[in-house]
Specification:
Blueprint lengths: L1 E2 L6 E5 L3 E3 L4 E3 L3 E5 L2 E6 L15 E5 L4 E3 L2 E6 L8 H7 L3 H17 L2 E6 L6 H10 L7 E3 L4 E3 L9 E3 L5 H11 L4 E4 L19 H13 L4 E5 L2 H10 L3 E4 L5 H10 L2 E3 L3 H4 L13 H24 L2 E2 L14 H12 L4 H15 L15 E4 L15 E3 L2
Parallel strand pairs: 1-20, 2-7, 9-10, 10-11, 12-13, 14-15, 15-16, 16-17, 17-18
Antiparallel strand pairs: 2-5, 3-4, 5-6, 8-19, 19-20
Helix pairs in contact: 5-6, 6-7, 7-9
The structure holds zinc ion.
């Protein structure tokens, strides 16, 4: 159930526990009062002394029983144009609007059904993500808040043909202007190829020189657009950081020095472990990895988890991103698998909740993640206490929306 908060109504939520995404702790709350779409007051226990500014408005009382309230989850990296089941079939649907709409509708429902109220798309050449963002904005479809780069930028003839068009450097300015005209929220750039599942540590080559990437980042920033960089090797991560990108996606095999640089520059990291780990769920007899490939995947996952742990200790801003739509990664449920991997990396549930809520909101430019008066009433509710067991987030069943 998705409850859309109506700015013309007053609300009283009777809650169980309330977890703030900023402090990552339980706050003393029994009731949350909402007016004008904002949290107006939080009172302990049965305290009902709060008075609405305009008491003549319709009052909606919601008793959430024992449910725990927390800020919405945010997925910082998805591909709405892909379903995570069958790449070729999804690509064929790009030419079939009715089939495509059905696919995306079900992806958006799965996303909301897992308490994920905002996603940032990683781009697709056909602009599918951007198109469906508009369907949600205009109310033709029900879905989370969507941030979209439209199509990604990449070097002609290199990796990423399904993500974006090849752009020659002399067309950069014109292309960025076109993206602005298309109404994108950000720019996505492909800095490297993809991680190999067959040979440990191998990643497709870096696509840009420092001068070229600097021009892309400066061009995006000059137009007021943040930039999300697909960078899968340490060399690509370094190049992206030096150019001043806002977020580094994937970052397999990045070094401690790169993490230090990330912390110093304030760039965020979206580690996307599940697209690698998901392949381990597939048995060899069903087309899954053979033993040598399995060993490569396991080592790659273990290294990424070790670096996630290190990133937290160095103060890097981590955003949770699934690359949903990539092979084996489903929209919605892939997020819980990614969080379970963060737990395996040794992060405390409180830290994971901060990454999943507040950090994600900041990366998407949303004023969510903190539950206190004056903030938007962007909330979800789950059974159990995710600070004790992060798996409680699986039960997101009742959403109080933005
Ligand atoms: Zn991606």
């Amino acid at each position: 159930m998705l409850i859309k908060i109506d700015v013309n109504k007053n609300y009283i939520l009777k809650t169980g526990l309330v977890i703030d995404g900023g402090q990552c702790c339980i706050i003393n709350a029994g009731r949350i009062f909402i007016e004008d779409g904002l949290i107006a007051a939080i009172t302990p226990g049965n305290d009902t002394s709060f008075r609405f500014t305009d008491p003549s408005r319709e009052l909606v009382c919601l008793d959430l029983g024992e449910l725990t309230v927390l800020p919405p989850l945010v997925d910082c990296h998805v591909h709405l144009a892909l379903d995570g089941k069958d790449f070729a079939a999804a690509r064929r649907r790009w030419e079939q609007p009715i089939e495509m709409a059905r696919q995306v509708q079900s992806e958006l429902a799965d996303t909301l059904g897992h308490g994920i109220l905002a996603v940032r798309d990683g781009g697709d050449r056909a602009g599918i993500g951007l198109y469906f963002r508009e369907q949600v904005v205009t109310g033709s479809m029900v879905g989370p808040v969507i941030r979209s780069p439209g199509f990604a930028l990449r070097k002609p003839g290199t990796y990423g043909s399904f993500l974006g068009r090849g752009v020659e450097m002399d067309q950069l300015s014109e292309t960025l202007d076109q993206l602005v005209q298309n109404g994108v929220n950000l720019v996505k750039v492909i800095v490297s190829g993809v991680v190999s599942f067959k040979e440990y540590g191998r990643v497709g080559p870096v696509q840009y020189t420092a001068t070229e990437l600097n021009a892309i980042v400066q061009g995006a920033h000059a137009r007021g657009l943040p930039i999300m960089a697909h960078a899968s090797s340490d060399a690509a991560v370094r190049l992206a950081l030096e150019a001043g990108v806002d977020t580094v996606e994937h970052g397999y095999f990045l070094s401690r020095e790169s993490l230090q640089q990330m912390a110093a520059r304030g760039s965020a990291w979206i580690p996307t472990v599940i697209p690698v780990a998901a392949r381990l769920n597939c048995r060899a007899e069903d087309g899954g990895p053979d033993r040598p490939e399995r060993l490569v995947l396991e080592r790659t996952v273990d290294r990424q988890l070790a670096m996630i742990n290190e990133a937290v200790s160095l103060g890097v801003t981590l955003g949770v991103g699934t690359d949903a739509g990539a092979s084996g990664v489903r929209h919605g449920s892939g997020y819980l698998e990614e969080l379970a991997l963060y737990r395996r990396a040794g992060l405390a549930p409180a830290e994971i909740i901060r990454c999943a809520t507040l950090n994600g909101a900041r990366i998407l430019g949303l004023d969510w993640g903190v539950i206190k008066p004056g903030r938007p009433a962007a909330l979800i509710a789950v059974a159990g206490n995710p600070l004790d067991d992060i798996a409680a987030l699986e039960t997101a069943q009742n959403m109080l929306s933005y």
